[in-house]
Amino acid sequence: MTVSLQKGQRVSLAKRGGGSLSVVRMGLGWDAVKKRGLFGSRSQSIDLDASALLFDASGALVDAVWFSQLLSKDGSVRHTGDNLTGAGEGDDESVVVDLGRLSPGVAQIVFTVNSFTGQDFSQIENAFCRLVDETTDEELARYELSGSGKHNAQIMAKVSRDGQGGWSMTAIGAIASGRTFQDLLPATAAHL
């Protein structure tokens, strides 16, 4: 059963029937808005990039997984590869997190999306991020990326340790500007 999240909403990631999640996948999907022209509409390519930013309890950046570093230093977080167009169905980019292997010093993981080529969100549609239990392929939570506009980045969601040994997900949906995750760090700090 999928939980459809609204901005600011938080959901526990405990498994139904008990137990805790071991491996989750954050999927990002989008489509480029078709451009209308004199000779009909045509597709365009939009290069959105998903990143996972790992923070400790004090809010310091410990590691980052993005198109230029596909694996975290401890090997627990893996980016499946860069999609340059948004073409195709389903997740266009994914970040897989092995929660059991994650360094105990990591308190939260913030997922961001940005347009490396600088195109703004008014040029995309059907954009979403979702969290999937990788062991069962069950979608746990989905957040529709709203707010199409002149921004070219968004701080999507975060997964945090909840204190009882489990995890929770919070939909953030904050608009930002920047072509890489480094550009988004000041805006991300407000959501830690």
UniProtKB/TrEMBL annotation:
InterPro entries: Stress/Tellurium_Resist, TerD. Residues 1-176 form the TerD domain. PANTHER family: CAMP-BINDING PROTEIN 1-RELATED. This is TerD family protein. It comes from Pseudonocardia oceani.
